[in-house]
């Protein structure tokens, strides 16, 4: 299987290249307009095939492409590969606006070609081992009653679109388990600092379950926590490697196995496993696509809401 990685910046070098370098049966192509970076990484990872642009990648007859470039470049990079019938993986956000995202997924549908949105938090091994979304109700009634996802940063207020599309979309998508979140059903709270979005909280409920996402970019430290409650059972995760399960007034410590690597603990390894299955089968579940589109549209609506709130003082 020949896979091209396009865009070799920080996220590619930290999260993807170390994994891909050791992936079995992978014929790997690196692509970047930065000639020095391309040459350095090709040598470091012993990659034989390189390319400087989309046309050169297309000429190498790849089976799939992975887009790690800046968000503003996503649409232009994704389109030619979908039009050529080549499956595409693209880091979240898929594009800079809800309309652009929907247009790309429509193009994928037109060419019957998978477009895979890279939400690594859907694949966190510790959480999925214990929560696994909304579990089937057992004889004790284990239906998920609440889920709260907090992702905070220190001293990073930003314009609403960058704040929401480039960062807040992670906790937003993580509570949009069923892909049916709607801005009209949300309770939204936003704080600004000198015209920049500093904090955003959303809250909504579906059936008998409560979902909340929070991001404070004026927090004391960079931190991510997840809390989930079932009937007489609850979980708290401080990051992605350790947590607690509370039941019958007892607290059990949860942890990943020793020596679990960063890429695995943050879901990148499981996400790539799924992505390569999509490449091999040429199909992606419609519910996954619907969730990706819905999360981006809620992000778009939140941008509009926050910009209006800011402009109206």
UniProtKB/TrEMBL annotation:
The record's SUPFAM superfamilies line, in alphabetical order, gives: Glyceraldehyde-3-phosphate dehydrogenase-like, C-terminal domain, NAD(P)-binding Rossmann-fold domains
Q: Which Pfam families match?
A: GFO_IDH_MocA
Domain of life assignment = Bacteria
Give the Gfo/Idh/MocA-like oxidoreductase N-terminal domain ranges.
Answer: 1-119
Q: Which PANTHER family match?
A: CONSERVED EXPRESSED OXIDOREDUCTASE (EUROFUNG) (PTHR43708), OXIDOREDUCTASE YCEM-RELATED (PTHR43708:SF4)
Q: What is the protein's name according to its record?
A: Gfo/Idh/MocA family oxidoreductase
From which organism does this entry originate? Salinivibrio proteolyticus
